[in-house]
Prior knowledge:
Helix content is about 30%, strand content about 15%. It has helices at about 25-35, 65-70, 120-125, 155-165, 190-205, 220-225, 240, 260-265, 285-295, 305-315, 325-335, and strands at about 1-10, 15-20, 45-50, 75-85, 90, 175-180, 210-215, 235, 275-280, 300, 320-325. The strands form two sheets. Strands 3, 4, 5, 6, 7, 8, 9, 10 and 11 form a nine-stranded mixed sheet that branches. A two-stranded antiparallel sheet has the order 1-2. The chain folds into two domains: about 1-35; about 45-335, TIM Barrel (Alpha-Beta Barrel). Strand 4 (about 75-85) and strand 5 (about 90) form a beta hairpin. Helix 1 crosses helix 5 (about 190-205), helix 5 (about 190-205) packs across helix 6 (about 220-225) and helix 10 (about 305-315) crosses helix 11. The protein is built from eleven helices and eleven strands. With about 350 residues, it is α/β, with parallel strands linked by helices.
Amino acid sequence: METVTMACSLLDGARRPLAIRFGPLLLATALLAGCAAPGPDPARGFDLQAHRGGRGMAPENTLAAFANAIDLGVTTLELDIGLTADNVVVISHDTALNPDHTRDASGAWLPATGPTIRSMTLAQVQGYDVGRLNPASNYGKPFAGQQPRDGERIPTLAALFAMVKARGNEQVRFNIETKLDPGKPDETAAPEPMVRALLAEIDKAGMARRVTLQSFDWRALALVGQLAPQLPRAYLTTARTLRDSRWTQGLNAGDFASTPLLVKAAAGDAGKAPVIWSPAFADLTPAQVQQAQALGMTVLPWTVNQRADMLRLLDMGVDGVITDFPDVLRDAMRERGRPLPRAGA
Length: 345
């Protein structure tokens, strides 16, 4: 073990040296856990989240999509990450190359699902173009207005952070999902190496104050609670994952009177770190919203794409919405008299 002295930036702007003992494997994540003051509470104001950067408008999980969402004006960029064979954190919803929006180096659409992200190096992953939807696929039909951006590659998380810094944007937050499936452990990195790599990347970029980590696989969130307890954690749920305790950190949903109580039990004593419950929006009831908020949690449903559903959820009192169409959500917020996130920067 070694003693590391570091300067932590506190909320009042003061800097104080802090000596802590760490082993070399824990250094990056310990720096993050020890230094990072809690980020702005996502419950303050309505949280407009652009799902995969807003795939209704631009190619999902690309730098083009994230830049477009910032130009439009959102609170948070929602995104997914995986780990390559050379342990680089990249932004991808799919654990393997998706033929619905992936072309090879010759410009041909993949005929079927491609290799897993985990089986390829970063150079191999970035040999593919993900800048438009395959017109022969049903996948893209709900996103007919998506503007193609040929030449877009699966980006690294570091590249996204660098782009946001280069723009001088100091407001937009990041809601980052670890793409894990306890039923398919061979398709991705295991939870611990993925979480450690992710925390190290966040630490390197100095973005801890602006990040929430989310997952359907609550093992990842338990690790975040251990390694970086001051980071907000978002517990994603759907009816399917709630039926299988492999997703819920071994907890049996049937043992709890409600899903908010289950999430509260999984989160434990989160201290000052915000705890978010992110349910599938169609499963959500007003009573659940009220109960979760009474338990001190933020309620952030996904993925809401119809204006009528957005208005209903706004009236229900949710704390934010994850959507593929942030432009539509901005209009719904305006109709309800909600303050809008600042555009541009």
